[in-house]
Amino acid sequence: MKILGVILDDRLNGMAHINYLKDKTGKILNRLTIAKTRKGLSGRVPKALYKRGNEAADRAAKNASERRKIDTYLGAPLRPPRTSLRRLLLSEWQLRWDDDEAKGRFTHNIGRDVKTSRCIDNLYMSQIVSNHGLCPHYLKRFNLRNCNCRCG
How many helices (H) and strands (E) does the chain have? Predict the structure, then answer.
């Protein structure tokens, strides 16, 4: 039985069905190639269709010119508000980042400017830069590990 080009048969497995479709598409491609060379098939559009399209465009222009009210849509572009908002947020973030009272002075010494392009996606690099992680001196602060090294 064949439904939508798929053969439903107990004797055909998946590979047999794929081979059948491959042969069928090859035959169709050969027929199209032969038809193109014999009849000169191309992507040309008859001139009558251009004429009909021009007439329809002329009618639409005439109808639009006879209206009393002009259809206009002056949608506000979204890009300028987004960029100004992004600039405002980055400047606020930079002010908070430069605050001497805030925490994170170790990380501030590594990167003084706030940038959205700077992203650390490595877990261990993130722990080193933020000075938080499974380092012995950090775990000693919370009495989770006994660390007597110089850094801790």
Answer: 6, 2
CA distances from 140 to 2, 129, 135 (A): 72, 18, 9
Residue corresponding to tokens 């890009």:
79
Supply the pLDDT for residue 124. Answer: 77
User: Percent of the chain, pLDDT > 70?
Assistant: 62
Tell me the three state secondary structure of residue 6: strand
Are the C-beta atoms of 137 and 147 separated by less than 8 Å?
yes
Chain Cα centroid distance, residue 18: 33
In terms of Cβ atoms closer than 10 Å to its own Cβ (0-12, 13-18, 19+), residue 128 is middle
Would the pLDDT of 62 be above 60?
Answer: yes
Task: Identify whether the C-beta of residue 76 lies closer than 8 Å to the C-beta of residue 84.
Answer: no
DSSP state of 113: S
What's the whole-model pTM score?
0.32
Neighbours of 140 (CB within 10 A): 16
Give first-to-last CA distance, the chain, whole Å.
Answer: 76
Buried b vs exposed e over 100-124: b needs ≥16 C-beta within 10 Å?
Answer: eeeeeeeeeeeeeebeeeeeeeeee
